[in-house]
Amino acid sequence: MPGYGDSPPVETVVTAQGRVAFLDRVLQELGMRRPVLVSPSMSGRFSLPFLLERGDRLSGFVPIAPVGTKDYTAEQYRRVQTPTLILYGDRDTGLAPQALQNLQHLPEHRVVVLPGAGHACYLDKPEDFHRALLGFLRQLK
């Protein structure tokens, strides 16, 4: 993601609109039509504005304790019709509860909590994570 890790900062992704355009461009370049967007942690800065603005272009959304959930209102979340799997580890006591509090307003959601897993639940409990993810993917149209 531009501006994170070893990636240089990019001025075009400073705003939510710029991040939506960036993610849209990436999906187009990859030729992806109606993908499932898996969004752990910092990627929430990109995925959440995309979900709220262009969620109809997604088959599903899997937020894993993403940042930025408090930047949007319950009403904004209620307008999203994208099937969503809210996934987090029960040892993530910082970001996960806040994300859940906000994301629970998404009308088409279900929640899976991975016991014994922290913020990076996909690393702590990979088999449980993949079981939950595959179960969600199988139920999508």
Automatic annotation (TrEMBL):
Keywords in UniProt for this one? Cytoplasm
Q: Which SUPFAM superfamilies match?
A: alpha/beta-Hydrolases (SSF53474)
Domain called AB hydrolase-1: residue spans = 72-126
Coarse class of the primary localization is cytoplasm
Q: Which Gene3D superfamilies match?
A: alpha/beta hydrolase
Q: Transmembrane stretches, by residue range?
A: none
Q: Quick one: a GO cellular component term?
A: cytoplasm
Q: What is this protein called?
A: ABHEA protein
Q: Where in the cell is it found?
A: Cytoplasm
PANTHER family under this entry?
A: PROTEIN ABHD14A, PROTEIN ABHD14B-LIKE
State the family it belongs to. Answer: Belongs to the AB hydrolase superfamily. ABHD14 family.
